[in-house]
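Submission checklist for the structure archive. All mandatory fields must be present; incomplete records are returned to the submitter.

[x] Identifier: Cbb3-type cytochrome c oxidase subunit
[x] Organism: Pseudoalteromonas spongiae
[x] Residue count: 315
[x] Sequence attached
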Amino acid sequence: MTTFWSIWVIVLTIACLAICFGLLVWNLKNYVGVEENETCGHEFDGIEEINNPLPKWWTIMFFATFVWGVVYLILYPGMGNFKGVLDWTSSNQGVLNIQESKDAVIANADKRVQLDKEMEAAEERFGPVFQQFAKQDIKDLATNEEALEIGQRLFSQNCAQCHGSDARGGQGFPNLTDNDWLYGGSPEAIKQTLLHGRVAAMPAWIDALGEDGVKEVTAYVLSLSGRTVNQKDAAAGQTKFAMCAACHGMDGKGNYAFGAPNLTDNVWLYGGSQRAVEETLRNGRAGVMPAWKDILGEDKVHILTAYVYSLSQDK
């Protein structure tokens, strides 16, 4: 906020407080020319107006609220660029990435940063719990009710935005409750995905195939999962599928190393209609799974891995 607008806000705030205080004091005095508790001479539907003073409890509460408001504005930030005499803030403002956030925590260690203090308190309380679970095997944790409850909360806070609260995903976001995995569904593979993230590398093929080639390869790809297609187009598409086989394999069953999906199981991340597959071939896909190592830390990722792994296992 610029200096001008900061001064503007401060002046308006003080003016509003002064006006409110003045109105209260003014209303404590009798200006109507009628003694207190006497009638003002007005009557409405049998209801007579009496010149009663403000209730003392109301007046006292108003003054107390006013005083608290003034004290609050002095102690805490609330007026323009004034930061308050306590130098308190709810969080480190202006950070753009995780590293800047960490640097700000160190730089503001002697200040009253509410979020930092809460994070420190939470780490002191729950850190040993996470560390204890992190020493256990993921498959064992996948049957540990306490660990799964923690994992579910971590999932709800960090993963449900994309994969859904039920972990069944949506278009462009994998279903985590089945056994169809792009990079592998073993505990080790899931943990690797969570720690370091994934970046899709499905290129656009329109320049290499042309519109006719896209339709032909689409027909062949759909035929791999037993779909009814134009056989002539599928046959032509099969000859062009060689350029896809480098990632998906000659049999179209995919490759965990590249995150290339299995094209024979009729499970589709971006939709399995002819139009959706054509769009994928024409424009490519560039999905991104963020890395959680620096955000959650390895101990929490370990527990989250156990929860995600448990979702696809038979109970």
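[x] Structure attached
Curator remark: Residues 57 and 200 are 66 Å apart (CA to CA). The two ends are 56 Å apart (CA to CA).
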